[in-house]
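Lay summary. Proteins are chains of building blocks that fold into shapes, and those shapes determine what they do. In this project we predict the shape from the chain. Here is one chain we studied, written as its sequence of building blocks.
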Amino acid sequence: QVQLVESGGGLVQPGGSLRLSCAASRIIFSFYTMAWYRQAPGKERELVARITTGGTTTYADSAKGRFTISRDNAKNTVYLQMNSLKPEDTAVYYCNGAQTWGQGTQVTVSS
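And here is the predicted shape, written in a compact code that computers can read:
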């Protein structure tokens, strides 16, 4: 079955940066649109960014200008570069694709 494994989360100060990675296995990665979602405590899971098979990207308003989604089909990996992080970006970040969710990686933005 398809497996998605996220990494790269952690604790960062406001204004800092993190790069999340999501490695996919048992999937023809290049065939699928991939996305990053996040879920903060007490809130619903929300879309952060999406990238199609052709490389077209879509961002939530909260992510525009600060986050960049990219993919490396040779490595079966999708990335989320997050800059200028804010405390409100604190959440568990999930990778999604091929009707599958990763286990999530915690991002905490705090001084």
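What the prediction tells us: The two ends are 40 Å apart (CA to CA).
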